[in-house]
Amino acid sequence: MRISRRLLLLASLFAATAFARQPDPPGQVRTGEKPVNEAYLFAHMTHADYGRLYYSVSTDGLHWYRLNQGKRITDDYRGHPDIARGPDGTYYIAGNQSDESPTINIWSSRDLIEWRRYSDYKPDLKATPGYSQALQRIGAPKLFFDEASKQFVMTWHTPHLEGTPEDSERYWASQRTLYVTSPDLRKFSGPPHRLFDWDMGTIDVFIRKAEGKYWTVIKDETYPTLDWVTGKTIRIAHSDSLLGPYKELSAPISPNFREAPMLIQSPNGKVWYLYYEQYPGVSYGLSVASSLSGPWYQVSGYTFFSDWDKYSLPSKVRHGAMITISRQQYDALVKRFGIEKESK
């Protein structure tokens, strides 16, 4: 009888756990409430077609669906997609043919559907003050338009050491974030400058303005060890000025071996969603906070249990950029490209 009661109790506990509904992430709108942020675009590459442009969309910032039957949006674009909106509503996307290419290419679009080559920029990397040892590498150029100064900032990462068979990681640890400014993405300030004076590797850096400050979201590119436990994580810093100095570099927001962060506001505009990729193309993580200064916590996903998975992305999508769009823009993208009914 004791065994039967014990088994019955265990079975009841298992059933309760199996059918328990876990709480959803904060930031969603209630029924009948109008969202502050109506929809989102994820411009990304794929595992099989790295460096090309693909789209997925979402209306809640959590569940993402492919557009265009998983085909390229354009054959012209090459790079790590990053999109910024200019003062007149025109969108711009930065890229380059490869890290070894000396030129950054920029495309423009009025509707996020048709992209046209807009301009090219060839930075004189070795003219960067205090960084004459820069190698000819340009990684993941990213764009930010600053309303206050009416100028664009374009950032990218450039290393100063080659890897060796004994230490391939020294190449990545030597990455430093550089930038130039521009009023129109045709004329650029020069030469490039370093964004940070920290003696640490940084890649995948982008700038945002919120909560009365400027923020840089950063991948700490030093390899993790007991002496550098923050390596290969996503971190954040802030400044009162667009070009820094950036300070109070945060503790890791993500686990180790995460990259390519992307930041959006929730539908109700009160919560931040920070996505990052577990590389190489394994999965995505999601951390949330009510303020960019934190605290941050991770949302459950990629467990393949529906009650636990609180966000979903199409399979084999690789990194890029997430931006907020209107419902009208969302509908136009879906009408033009078609949408998958379920994430796969």
TrEMBL record:
Keywords per UniProt: Glycosidase, Hydrolase, Signal
Signal peptide segment: 1-20
Associated pathway: Glycan metabolism; L-arabinan degradation
A GO BP annotation: carbohydrate metabolic process
Superkingdom of this protein's organism: Bacteria
A single GO molecular function term of this UniProt record: hydrolase activity, hydrolyzing O-glycosyl compounds
Keyword Signal included in the entry's annotation: yes
Coiled coil, from the record: none
Protein name according to UniProt: Glycosyl hydrolase family 43
Provenance organism: Povalibacter uvarum
Lineage: Bacteria, Pseudomonadati, Pseudomonadota, Gammaproteobacteria, Steroidobacterales
